[in-house]
## 1
Amino acid sequence: MNLFRILGDLSHLVSIFILLQKMRSTRSCAGISLRTQILYLMVYCTRYLDIFWTFNASLYNSSMKLVFILSTAYTIYLMRTVYKTALDPQIDTFATYYLVGGAGLLAVLFPYKYTVYEVLWSFSIWLESVAILPQLFMLQRTGEAETITTHYLFALGAYRALYIPNWLYRWFLEGHFDPIATVAGIIQTLLYSDFFYIYYTKVLKGKKFELP
Amino acid sequence: KKAEKAHDEL
């Protein structure tokens, strides 16, 4: 465990709280992609299968896994019930089928081992790297976003971005290298780069998030 | 061993 990883995990945790807070304070899920949330739930459910047999390995990991699965399920529940009037299927249209299919293909081609758990783990890593695309696509279509939504996206993107120095640290200091997670994590961070740039140049300077 | 160790991250 190193500082980058803890900060990354905390950033992930904070992002979920910001999202729930956004829905509560605006009483709406406007601007949030249901498709992205469903993809994330798939990511957590396939990656954290080991929660059933590694519960004693690390209380930190196990509790974080539970929080990620439950809070994402709760977010989806809220979006489909309490706040469903703000759902806009006309805007949230990204072809998620291709993302799931592509992640599935990569998982079958490059798992560490050919076991159900390892293939699903690899699938979850690849799917996570692109799970934000429906959300970013939606943002592009609307051309603007509420500030609190951009804080959510920043915190979520920072999670994987902070894992990159964590992987470098582990590689140099612990001789530990995880090529699948590292390559997928770099792709994921690159997908966020445009968003990070606009967040930095606009939102952090007190301006509204608007696409040029 | 290597693959298992990889999964100690979230």
## 2
Amino acid sequence: LNCIKDLEDILKKFDTS
Amino acid sequence: GHRCIAPGCNSGYDSCKEKYHFFTVPKDDIQLREWTKAIPRKDFLIKPRQVVCERHFHEEEILRKRIMTDKDGTILAEAVYKIPKLKEGAIPSIFPNCPKYLSYSLKRRKLPLIRSSSPKKKKTDKKKDPQMDCAFNSKPSIEIAITDSINDSVGIFSFSKLQENVNSIVFPSGWSRHDIPGKLIMFSFFIVKTEETAITENYIPTPILYKRVCLGVNLNVQCFVMNIS
């Protein structure tokens, strides 16, 4: 994880998967 | 229009082509007395609603823009005020058209009680602190600036900084967040089995933990579906 956006992207992807 | 009441000042008069901002004489009794004492005019009653132009205030006492900083003092955003404001307790103190002794510097105005040696500022070496890039204030009003400052940073990111500013993490709707200081930030998504709700009217189903994203201190992310990693 390099930044807050990485975490937000993971959450977004995992939410829709 | 307004005309400055400072002695010899032509702000607001036809003879003055430059435009200056005017500050209203305060209504508050104590403040009014301070202003009256400061403005060197004899036989002249200084009243609220009269005005003094910006030329009679030290620039340090005029607030022209709102500066938003993080807790380390790094400027995140600036917004210029349409109408400049005076710092609390500011009084007119520059009278160019009067003898010099009637004007005074900011330092002289400090009351004996307030006057003290300024606290020594801790020297912070920004280069040595890898967390500087990520540090920010968590006031919601400047959340946009905050997120940007994080996104822009290529510097080292830390769990503690992330946890300090946990409220600015945007997560999908329907998810909830649990924060265990110094250990874990967890995002959970629950579902409710809808077929069970149809059994009886008063039946309250227990939500099932469906998905989870756990962020540990090492910034490692673990995703779970029905408790399976």
